[in-house]
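Example 3.2
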Amino acid sequence: MLESPDPEARSSSCWLLGALGSHEEIISAVLELKPYMWLVSLLRRVQVLRHNSFFLSCFSDKDSSVIARAIYALCQIARWSDGAQAIVDARALDGMLAFLESSSSDIRKWTCELVGRLVEHESTVQAILGLQPCAQLLSVLQDEDAQVTEWATYALSQISLWSDGAQAMGDAKALDRVLILLESQRPRTRERACELVGRLTFHKSTAPTIMELQACGQLVCLLSDDDPRVILRATHALAQFAVWVDCAQMIVDAQALDHVLRLLKCLGQNVRKWACKLVGRLASHEPTVRAISESNVSAVLLSLLCEPAIRSSAIFALGAISGWPDGVAALADIDAFKELQELINSELLDSDTRDQTCRILDNLARYKAVGDWSGRGGKLRIVS
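Structure, written as tokens:
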């Protein structure tokens, strides 16, 4: 069917192949048939003929569908490390980025996804980065088709997982253009943009530029987004921001704690987990721990200890808070010792969470022994 003269038959075969390639259980059997060789051969023929004006005049919508679905099939195969390596070995990357200039939005969309899928794997990331794809992906960030924009953002987000990729994005002057996507009218684009910004902030090479562009304020605004997926990604991105002390201060200055208190009480389990991690990272810095201590966040964290899925994240945050005199005093004020003691005596904790809980209890016991020291300064040895 892949060799059929009928474009519709070839298109359907590509779609079926992609559907089969998306299943981990059968990907080995699919790869044994080496269908990617035919798919790559098809794309290479198109690349050779794309500058032929006669060919272009005869190029039908059905032909475009075959190409789009061939790239789609490669996307599905590229989900898996062995499949991604096979695609690279078949020289699928030769001229691949030229498809970003196609008049077909489906071809542009699937090409963006293919770049993102291939760059996910450590074994193939350098092959993709060697193509220097950032500039061409940036060119479709404002595509007339919203799905193309979404998948271009996805590809850039996958590239930014790697330090070399993040540096390449910085070199391509991409960062200011990425932040515009946080204001997109499409929730999916905002979600992917949050993911991208969070990953860029993780790297020392790009974090300063992201800070200078004041992305923090935009992310804090998205904590009140209408779409829960955007809220989750914005919370996750801010947790990445909070690793850096300067970013942590920006988050506090942007009044993020008011939003965080609300998120800790929301229905979304993953949002509450990342809100806990955000609090924990904010509390790990001396300049921002006082803002945490003076808020009601410690009491809310304590109330989350009864929820098994969130307990370890809440303990992480409480542990960071207890590592400072102001923080441990705030925990003592809400009688955290009693609740944590009851928790440690139960069989509900894994070993790591139990160790963290013991450290918090140790800090509280030391505070209780010394008392409320003058100015809550550094006289008490806090265990962090």
